[in-house]
Design goal:
Layout: H1 8-58, E1 65-66, E2 91-92, E3 104-105, H2 136-140, E4 144-146, E5 164-168, E6 175-177, E7 189-191, E8 194-196, E9 204-208, E10 234-239, E11 244-248, H3 262-265
Parallel strand pairs: 1-5, 2-3
Antiparallel strand pairs: 4-9, 5-6, 7-8, 9-10, 10-11
Length: about 270
Amino acid sequence: MKRHAFTLIELLVVISIIALLIAILLPALGSARKSARLSQCLSNQSQYGKAIYAYAADNRQNLPAHENWYNLAGPAGSATGAAIWPVLSQSGLASEVGSNGVIAARALNEYLGDSADASRCPEDKGDAFFPDVENAFEDYGNSYIPQWKDGTGVPYFGVVQVFGASTLDASGRRQVIDGREPANMDSGVRNGGVLYNFGWSNKILMGDYPWHGNRDLADPRNQWHLRSSETKRLAVLLFGDGHAEYFEFDSDYGDLNAPVDPTENGFW
């Protein structure tokens, strides 16, 4: 029986069809990967929400206190010295304590199983506010930034600060609240001498590292989860009732000293 080979035209047609299918499928696959990464980030922050509630239950409904913006939880970062933050190498997982200069466990790690998993966002592009930080998780040990009480008393960007500040005692192993007390789930949030209590479901606790309004939207490193070419301030955020959501701010939602007004922007 005589067999006929493909003609050149038939082969080119088949190749063209395959190329067309690839062109159609690749964007869909890219979108699926993007959605999977977003889902992972939402899951991470939901785990944080559960851990925060467990911590509060063990601590008279107080939220955690910690030493700086980056170290609510997660492993020790690789960045060291005052060039970025003064105590970057001092805290991490309990399993790291005593090695590589790590002298204390971060406040929430016990409630996250002393694991780094929930602290890494797969879309982490670093902290453009400090250009040398190309990956926040790698350098800080955490892809997420909480609304921490840094001593100014200012509710940055109209979002009231909730996590207390602490220092380490002489042993370097135990946290001591330094006067900037954390919020309490029962009594609300006291900040700058004012008691705020507008409901936990719209209270922002933390989010992707670039969610703060002083991160330039024109810098692509501040666009972690953007799914189009538009310039928007979109971030995965964790709210006080424990839910995480992909949240869109107004492109300009207030400067560093924006007043707290939940009737205006819907969050506080």
